[in-house]
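Quick start: what a row looks like.
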Amino acid sequence: MIVTLDLPAELEDELSLEASQLKLPITEYILRVLSFRPFLQNPPKTGAELVTYWENSGIINSRPDITNSQEYARRLRREAETRE
């Protein structure tokens, strides 16, 4: 579906700046903002609800290549501590 909007200049500038900071086209950024709306209307109230939200959003298990998260975190920490 195509929707054409006439945004106030200030809002367009704000959205453009936020999109550029994330290195996203403004259209993709606006789509992400709109898709996040249900979460803002009914945010998780418990840790279990947050985990369920993350699972449904594909955040949890999004890195199947990481089989041992603790070892992966240790390796990242070592790399950060030894970089120049």
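That is the whole record. The two ends are 49 Å apart (CA to CA). The chain has a mean pLDDT of 90.
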